[in-house]
Amino acid sequence: MFGAIARRYDLANHLLSGGLDFFWRRRAARIVRSWQPERILDLATGSGDVALSLRRACPEANIIGADFCVPMLRQARSKNSGPVVAADGLALPFAAESFDVVTVAFGLRNMASWPGALAQMRRVLRPGGHVLILDFSVPPAPLRWIYRPYLHHVLPWIAGWLTGERGAYEYLGESIERFPAGEAMCQLLREAGFAQPTAERLTGGIVSLYTGRV
Ligand SMILES: C[S@@+](CC[C@H](N)C(=O)[O-])C[C@H]1O[C@@H](n2cnc3c(N)ncnc32)[C@H](O)[C@@H]1O
Known about the structure:
Blueprint: H1 2-5, H2 9-16, H3 20-34, E1 39-43, H4 49-57, E2 62-67, H5 70-78, E3 84-86, E4 99-105, H6 114-124, E5 125-136, H7 143-163, H8 166-178, H9 183-191, E6 195-202, E7 207-213
Parallel strand pairs: 1-2, 1-4, 2-3, 4-5
Antiparallel strand pairs: 5-7, 6-7
Helix pairs in contact: 2-7, 3-4, 7-8
């Protein structure tokens, strides 16, 4: 699915979010900078926009992007987002305790097992390391009343026209409805062995940002 939309992925993101995606990624990068990491894994790096924000925020850090979709990684390479590795988030090819921070933006939601992916992230983090998850969520009312019709009807229609892959964007709405948010995500983080989970709503709750510590 991501291979089919790879070439138009960035354009669709920026248009459909009204440019807010730049702000969401910058906010995530600023939090990561406060942790002063040396080695960062950007999992589900896709077209590399998070890795690029991280490079700007943490110029001294060694940042690796990983994703299992090669056409998306090609987009990342064309933008010089830094080194990338073709890898499945459910079987990461990295040694235990090899990163200070793992970020995953709009990626965990798409993985076949959320606990399985979180367990892999925890495994590759050193003791004291941090995870940061950025993903869509359904905002509370009254914003939800406008957001849901946009998400399930308007967005797939525009994105289908832009990318020729309307099904991928119908899936987007369904996956957002299924994905745990707020306290439910904090609980998932605890169950995966992360301490001090935090949740922050961005843009009225259209997006949520979670952190946890090993
Ligand atoms: C919506 S894109 C997000 C890309 C990027 N992080 C961003 O913020 O724009 C989701 C990405 O997750 C990747 N992905 C989904 N499941 C994966 C898995 N099991 N292992 C690695 N990457 C995965 C897809 O290939 C896709 O590039």
